[in-house]
Design brief:
Layout: E1 14-27, H1 45-57, H2 60-65, H3 84-92, E2 109-112, H4 115-132, E3 137-155, H5 172-183, E4 188-192, E5 200-204, E6 211-224, E7 230-234
Parallel strand pairs: 3-4
Antiparallel strand pairs: 1-3, 2-5, 3-6, 4-5, 6-7
Organism: Pseudoduganella plicata
Pfam families: RES
InterPro entries: RES_dom (IPR014914)
């Protein structure tokens, strides 16, 4: 039996955060949510409608938006604000094994304070995927989604008692902390990036706190036989893609 996590009895301190232009990278194909990936598969509008109905029957985000998911209620999701579907997807499409501060039933909005941090996190996880199949041969485009936060979050930065939550190879202790804090009404966790030394990350537990979501820069990540990819910015016409990091307070 694996060892149970030994978390401190006292929760991490709360810190009032005011941070603008945080960076979250998502595959570009998911950034324009109005353009369905099903469209090229259909030969007619009628066939496309049939595909939509079949997809919607098992679509985790849509099930949640209609009150059908166990991990998050419809009352917590966003509606009728720019990019609300992208925000909702972060909470309804959890990986089965979970991530650092969420389980497999409820996701979180993960972001870095700097673009370099977001890129380092994505590069690490994609490289692990390719290493598992022993194939470093792919090219993927990512779209940065910027968001602003003004809210109190639990902060584990610089706290030795929560070092186990930053284990580079295990999420056991970090998920246990997240479960406890979430049950107590926590808004999320500030933590040092495990993949980008000196970087800062936020796992926001509440969709309503993900503010002013908009597109930032886009990048192409290319693996050509080696674990280290090349990272190239993709010009986006008529859009300000400069990331101006805000100040954490």
């Amino acid at each position: 039996m694996p060892d149970l996590p030994t978390l401190p009895a006292v929760a991490p301190p709360l810190r009032q955060l005011r941070q603008f232009d945080t960076c979250r990278l998502i595959p570009s194909r998911f950034a324009d949510v109005e353009d369905s990936v099903l469209a090229p598969l259909a030969d007619s509008d009628a066939e496309l409608r049939d595909l939509f109905e079949l997809d919607n029957a098992t679509n985790a985000r849509l099930l949640s938006e209609h009150g059908g998911a166990a991990g998050i209620g419809i009352d917590e999701l966003l509606f009728a604000v720019p990019n609300y579907r992208i925000v909702n997807a972060a909470y309804t499409y959890a990986r089965p094994e979970g991530s650092r501060f969420n389980d497999g039933e409820r996701g979180a909005w993960y972001c870095g304070f700097a673009m370099e941090t977001a890129l380092a996190e994505v590069v690490f996880h994609k490289t692990v995927e390719y290493a598992e199949i022993d194939r470093f041969d792919d090219s993927v485009t990512y779209q940065a989604m910027l968001a602003d936060f003004t809210a109190p979050f639990h902060d584990i930065r610089g706290l030795a008692e929560f070092a186990g939550c930053l284990d580079p190879a295990s999420y056991v202790e970090s998920q246990a902390l997240a479960e406890r804090l979430l049950a107590g009404g926590s808004t999320g966790i500030l933590y040092p990036s495990v993949r980008h030394p000196g970087g800062t990350c936020l796992a926001c537990f509440r969709p309503a706190l993900v503010g002013n979501v908009r597109k930032g820069a886009a990048y192409r990540l290319t693996w050509q036989g080696a674990a280290e990819p090349t990272v190239e910015p993709i010009p986006i016409p008529h859009q300000n893609t400069q990331n101006q990091a805000g100040n954490a307070q």
